[in-house]
């Protein structure tokens, strides 16, 4: 399964996360950072099962986490 989301889809999913989950994206990113060291799809599954997230929201959170992690490497 592809990890690629269109930029528009990704931004739309991120914008809905606080409303749908009751938590800010920054809270979810911290949860992922403090969670187990897993590969992309394993992290998505972990969020879905441990935190009862929809697949799209979990994937968007992990995608954002990976984007920010990659950006930190360039600084």
Task: Please characterize this protein's 3D structure.
The protein has 75 residues and is mainly α. It has one domain. It contains 4 helices and no strands. Helix 2 crosses helix 4 (55-74). The radius of gyration is 12 Å and the shape is globular.
Question: Would you spell out the secondary-structure blueprint of this structure?
Answer:
Blueprint: H1 7-21, H2 25-34, H3 40-51, H4 55-74
Helix pairs in contact: 1-4, 2-4, 3-4
Key traits:
single chain; 75 residues; mainly alpha; 76% helix
The residue ranges in which pLDDT falls below 50 over 5 or more consecutive positions are: none
Q: What do the pLDDT scores average to?
A: 92
Q: Which class best fits the helix and strand makeup?
A: mainly alpha
Question: What's the assembly state of these chains?
Answer: single chain
- What order do the SSEs take from the amino end to the carboxyl end, as H and E? HHHH
Largest beta-sheet details: none
Number of domains: 1
Number of strands: 0
Count of alpha and pi helical runs: 4
Radius of gyration: 12 Å
Q: Please give the share of residues in helix.
A: over 70%
**Which overall shape is indicated by the principal axes computed on the Cα atoms?**
globular
* Beta-strand residue percentage: under 5%
Question: Could you give the distance between the termini?
Answer: 30 Å
